[in-house]
Amino acid sequence: MTQTYSQSQEDHIRKQLNALRDELTTKTEGLLLSTYYDDLVAADAALKQTIPYFAPPHDRPVVTSDGDVEFGAIPYWAKNPSQIPYADKIPSILLEGLKLLDDAGVFPPPTITQSEYNTLLNAVQGGYAVGSDGTLWSTEPYGQLNFRWIEAVINVFFVNHIYKKSPFITTPSTASLTGANTDAIKIALIGDWGTGASDAQNVRDAAMALNPDYLIHLGDVYYTGTPQWSDLRPFVGMDDEVNHLVNQWPANMANGQSYTMNSNHEMYCGAYGLYEDALTAAPFKHQQGCTYFLLENDNYQIFGLDSAYDSPDWLFMDGALNQSQINFVQSKIDSSKTTVILTHHTPFNLTGTEKISKQKGGTTVSLWNQMIEATNKKVPDYWYFGHIHDGIAYVEPKGGNYFDGCKARCTGHASMPYGAPWGLAKPNAVAPFKAGDWIDTVEFAAGTPKDASKPNGQVKNGFMLITLSPNGIKESFYDEDGTETWSSS
């Protein structure tokens, strides 16, 4: 799945790289050292502390860094490009971009040693490099050591310094929540679905076999949600949004029944692919070009919100709402109805024990706190999100926890390769995990092995189906083959 570039395309990208270099040279001592550099120091530290835990048995990782571990290899790669897996297949323009950013002082010296990097590669080759959250470290497409993730770093710099973000549209659709059977409205939720790979297609087909009234994508099109090629605004990697979302979407979904949402991977290209290619496509035109919406009837309000556009960090990893959305929810919230929230980002950490917050301009930004402000202090009855590549049903907390009364579900496992999330299981549990193996805050986590002979390896992708009736919501997790693995009503 290597991208190829024509000479003309390389020339257009190189022109933007030169403009980026000129822009960065004026910011090296300020913005870069305080933001990009420090965040990548933390990412490198997080991966360094995680590497010893890839080889089973999986003890609890002791990770003191708050860095984004999936970007932890980037500093090492920048200093050692010849050691990037399949280095001979990397398009030269990607290596040029990586070197330009390194020369500008973006990347810190890695603390990961040659020996530690070799340990990581050995774990990958052995097939057991699974992180505590299920993240699968491999060199295959969409694995964490695939060189195409370099595209994310280059594109986000184009957005932050050359192109800026696509304008934010504030015309949200408010539509009636209806279905073939008004006493049983079925909504299929698929998160982090946009790979275009066979696993994603399996999930799509299994979801459609249940005849949902709505099919909603919670965001993430890979590698970076790129728009169709533009000579004036080129990105590395091309046409992701069309090839991995629009062209893969079910053709038989009637207009008005499909929704797609914003995410960090769409934001790596400034959401241009989302706005220009996805939201103008026939299945999503009813969203009025907007990344947030409301579906409601006499019993339910479902708010689909954009947690990516105003993310407080430069990699868009932490969720946030802008004031337009807060005002929208405040103007529409009805405390007499069951409140259902849909976002790409999670409001709390993997184990569901701590709110996620991030400093931005001297202010602490918390997606959970913003949501409570938007709902006029009404705790959402249900919150469905992706971002973490797992299927997780969290235990509804009681007894003074800040999100008492909220049923929180992660359904971000629709296409990305992942393994059983051993960080959610009790210390002595062995994969494949079963009921009773989970930590106290987790009721269920999807983890059916793709290969029964390799329980510590890759697991099946999946999705959720929620069925709304006047008496309540029934929730179900399904594997990509259509097998129901968990339900609650």
Shape from CA axes?
globular
**Could you say which structural class the secondary elements and strand pairing correspond to?**
alpha/beta
Overall pLDDT:
93
Can you say what the CATH homologous superfamily of the largest domain is?
A: Metallo-dependent phosphatases
Q: List the secondary-structure elements in sequence, H or E.
A: HHHHHHEEHEHEHHEEHEEEHEEEEEEE
Q: What do we call the CATH topology of the largest domain?
A: Purple Acid Phosphatase, chain A, domain 2
What does this structure look like?
This protein is an alpha/beta fold and 489 residues long. The protein folds into two domains: 7-163, no CATH class; 173-488, 4-Layer Sandwich (Purple Acid Phosphatase, chain A, domain 2). The protein is built from twelve helices and 16 strands. Helix 4 (92-103) crosses helix 6 (150-163). The longest helix is centred in the N-terminal third of the chain and has 23 residues, at 28-50. The mean pLDDT is 93.
